[in-house]
Design brief:
Length: 125
Amino acid sequence: QVQVVESGGGLVQAGESLRLSCTVSGLNFDAWAMGWFRQAPGKEREGVSCISRSGDSTYSADSVKGRFTIFRNYVKNTVYLQMNSLKSEDTAMYYCAAGSRCGLDYLLPDRYNFWGQGTQVTVSS
């Protein structure tokens, strides 16, 4: 049984940082690209960042480039999202997911197969 569990969300002020974690079990972590997505109230789920299976390639949405960094630890079967210089518009439920590839055409919710339950990030201005 595949399990994807996110953690690390919380309430922060604008300009502060958070690090989200996502631990995966029940699948071969090395064989899956990993992505972070978010969904704000009343909005569609959108891709934030993804990282390739090997970890040598990442892709991020323009809205977070230069502020968010994705990386993965193969020993811990965990992928992280380091979020710096947070803005109020980053407020959303953040989801982690496993998919086949990472890139401009692949950071889409329907390209990812296994999802976590999400962790809430709230940024106050």
